[in-house]
Amino acid sequence: MEQLSQFAPFLLMFVVIYFFMIRPQQKRAKNEKEFESALKVGDKIVTKSGLHGKVAELADTTVVIETMAGKLKMERSAISMEMSAAVAKK
Description:
The chain is an alpha+beta fold and 90 residues long. The chain is built from 2 helices and 4 strands; from the N terminus they run H-E-E-E-E-H. The chain has a 4-stranded antiparallel sheet with strand order 1-2-3-4. Strand 3 and strand 4 form a beta hairpin. The longest helix has 37 residues. The model has no long low-confidence stretch (mean pLDDT 89).
């Protein structure tokens, strides 16, 4: 019984870390994967580096976006979910 009470604070600390750090990170990663797979031609997007454009072509892991400067090929993971959602609302 003494050993259990000795490890209880560590157990509690792990549970708190899991619910406040690990679980939200997993949810965010899942949401980003869903966003990447839901992209379609014609969607207005913003990349993580701040480039604005419209999806012109889609491949398995890459996407071609059309910008005012021309067409650019980049990884799907380079598209920002949050910034693209803000652009879509406008």
